[in-house]
Amino acid sequence: MRKFFKIFCIIFFLILSKNNLSFSAIKNNIIAKVGNEIITLIELENKVNTTLILANQKINQENINKLKNISLKRLIDLKVKQSEIKKFNITLNEIAIENHMKKISKNLNIDPSELKKFFELNKIDYDQYKNEVETEFLWQRLISQLYSSKININKDQIEKEVLEFSKNKKKNLEFKLAELEVNYENETKNELIKELKNSIDKIGFSETVIKYSISSSAFNGGEIGWVNSEVISSNLIDKIKNLKIGEISSEIIGVDTLVFYKMVDKRFSDGAEKINDNNIRKKIIDIKKNELLNLYSNSHLSKKKNSIIIKLQ
Fold this sequence. Notes:
CATH architecture of the largest domain: Orthogonal Bundle
Number of domains: 2
Distance between the termini: 17 Å
Strand content: 15-25%
Oligomer: single chain
Number of helices: 11
Largest sheet: 4 strands, antiparallel
Low-confidence stretches: 1-5, 14-25
CATH class of the largest domain: Mainly Alpha
Order of helices and strands: HEEHHHHHHEHHEHEEHE
CATH topology of the largest domain: Triger factor/SurA peptide-binding fold
Radius of gyration: 21 Å
Strand order of the largest sheet: 4-3-6-5
Helix content: 55-70%
Mean pLDDT: 82
């Protein structure tokens, strides 16, 4: 499946390059079928342009060429998710969607009531973007619904971590983090790392997250909020504990993903805040559950992609 998709991408973009076709020339053409879902060239154009504008980047041929491949992959993932979501009765959290759109407005320094107009002025499709956001939130709910009962947390390990935390409760260091997570393949891993680092240097971390990250946190510029140093895994803490505010970690290589972390802020939480063991226990469990749900999400999506036929039209 992955091999076929790579061949599809190569053929498709070679055709575009060979004939020097612009997006606008064949906007309504169907460029791919993902099961029963379709992707049109106008969707790809809008995806690329929306990504560039939200990342505060110019819409020029160089930037378009850099994003065409990853944008097509994202659209394929989106169609797979939409196809899977239709099989279940998942309720949309309207408040979460509204809060997300407010965050986007804040990042753009505009009033939330002006967001749709902002999209129109920049000639990008507001409804397509909102639909993508809704799909991501529905997908998160679906994964939680399917796999929450399958998550087994080692209670002894949790209690050990709670005990360690309690011993050092007087002053605990907390990190406010942002993440950039991307898929990679071994043969292009080093090239991708170089590309991401160059992008971070050139346009900044948040903008690079918007352009490249596959994580749901990409919608928030990668921010994952405050995390207590005592509940972070030892592998991660070694990578980030000495980062200064604003600094970015070296790449953390997983099975098929690369992750970079940015230190947004640091603070000490005072024991006088009356943090009790039950709250700490809940925080630790929530972090571990989210880590496992992310793994289930990637695995579930991968399985569904491998079972769906992707056709070049």
